[in-house]
Amino acid sequence: MKTYMEPKEQEEYLMNYLRSRRFTEATKALDLSSLGLDEELKSVGIRPDFNNRIFVSMLLRAMKDATPDTFILNLSSNRINSLVSLREFSSLFPDIQSINFERNFIPTVDDLDNIRGLDKLRELILLNNPLRNRLKSDMDVDKYTRELLKIFPALRVLDQKEVQPVIQFDLPSEIIVMNLPERKQNFYDSEATKNLVEVFLKKYVSYNMNLCTTAIN
Length: 217
Description:
Blueprint lengths: L6 H16 E2 L4 E3 L7 H5 L9 H14 L5 E3 L14 H4 L5 E3 L22 E3 L4 H4 L4 H14 L5 E2 L2 E2 L28 H26 L1
Parallel strand pairs: 2-3, 3-4, 4-5, 5-6
Antiparallel strand pairs: 1-2, 6-7
Helix pairs in contact: 1-3
């Protein structure tokens, strides 16, 4: 095995490596977990680094040629701290249905916006990432889920838990604003009417209480 390869040779090697070592045809699953620790790639001068745009560009080209039919992608344990380098991912692999980003360093939900456009993505795992570890309450989890659903509307499983569908209503584009009547303190037309009603109610209540007391005795 050559210990040094030109960039074009590295890309061809990576294509063959992905298809033969990392891809499962039966499930259309590409397992790239812990890719940076792979000794075989290191032996030919390939240094997997998902925070390096040059490497990620080469990897995406190799994936597109070798495993274009990938449905399930495992990117766990790759020390990913940004998804900026993956901006082209959604256009290259629009049919991806599941991605595992577990045990990385993704900082915020906003970073997932870099791979917006995966309209068929049904499962996403972000466990053991800073954006997930900082969630302290159910309210935090709900907000986190809603924000991710805005980016991936087809999502059904998040962090290995089923996502409850969001109930939406189709509203007209133009909301008709009705002019409500002026708010009043009460419904009396005058102070005299108010006093008359209050006197009546007091006598009515007193009369009925007397009836109840008589019935009980």
